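B., you asked whether I could sanity-check this one before it goes into the benchmark set. Here's the sequence:
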Amino acid sequence: MDWLFPAALALTGTMGVLMMLWGLWYLVSGLACVRKPIDYGFHPARTRFAVLVAARNEELVIGPLINSLLTQEYPAELYDIWVIPNNCTDNTSLAAQNFGAKVLECGMPVKSKGEVLRFAYNRLRGRRYDAWIVFDADNVVDSRFLAEMNNARLAGVQAAQGYRDSKNPYDTAVSGCSSIYYWMMDRFHNGGKAGLGMSAMIGGTGFMVTQKLLDRLGGWRTETISEDLEITTQAVLAGERVAYVPKAVTYDEQPLTWEQSFTQRRRWTSGTLQVAQAYLPALGKAQTERPRLLLFDVEMTLLLPAYQLAALAGLVCTALTSALGGNTLLQAVALGAAGVCGNIAWAALTATVAAGVVITMENKWDRRLWKGLAAYWLFLLTWLPITAFSFWKKTIVWKEIRHTRAMIPQLPGR
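And here's what the prediction gave me:
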């Protein structure tokens, strides 16, 4: 058994090096967020938008979204608001009509938002829209959103993600954690990638895709449960970068409970695994034909679940390596627990510091956010077992998370 300790030590070291290299790439790209975002200038309103809202049992929250869309600083004749009710057991359709939206009933069985969007696109593509914008029914939209997306499109952008802010960051510790996570994505992921001239990531809501790009992609043809990541990958393979438009702001309702958060993150992880399985071969082929940093970055994003699984394996290896230094069973257990606790403590410290940094950079400091800040490390830690479970059993059906916060956000200015 003399080989066991050096083998465990080597495995731990290998895991550590791989995680360090993956993390180093995200550190480098995240630091690029200090570069000033691209200014797309001011352009006359010329883009004709189709605004799509997939809605499942959203009668309690859809009113504020439609109101915020009807009061855009953009000519009303240049955009249509389409609500697509699906799998509803409430009065979402009637509520949407009463608030002034057009309703396109999706009576066919659907398992994901991507299927709903594909249904709507196929029904509406003959109406000669220039671009398609997607929101979730629980959102509230800044009055300049359409104007800023028009500026981006007329500057040559074919796909764009706006700034995802939070509607309810102070409700619970979980909603606070989710809010911090989105601010991280806005600042360090999308802002950083934009700073390096690479592709931002479409995030499910508050994004635009032009008809010109969809024509090149063969229409709206996402098949996975993560339609946002899938269409990002499709755009990159087609040679397009997803632009980041931070002036186009959407306020999103965050989960209130750990159970809701687990459901949401399991769906994200399962979707990422689906997209990785479907598109990593194509990305690898494109990389061999013409190596590009843009493709490498998308590959790193798709490997996030593998990184998280490696992090979990790293904790196990740390415990095993530490335990092998003990002479008795009690010493082994104590040393193993100490090794794991030390790693978790360090990860908790760095996660909390990073959360504090992004809260400061985004000007989001508020004493009501302390619960989310204190629990953020746990939010990230719980992602590891979620990922491990998703590797074992992926979810392929979108599970409803009921939204109830029918409110206009009153948040500190950006």
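One thing to flag: The two ends are 60 Å apart (CA to CA). Otherwise nothing jumped out at me.
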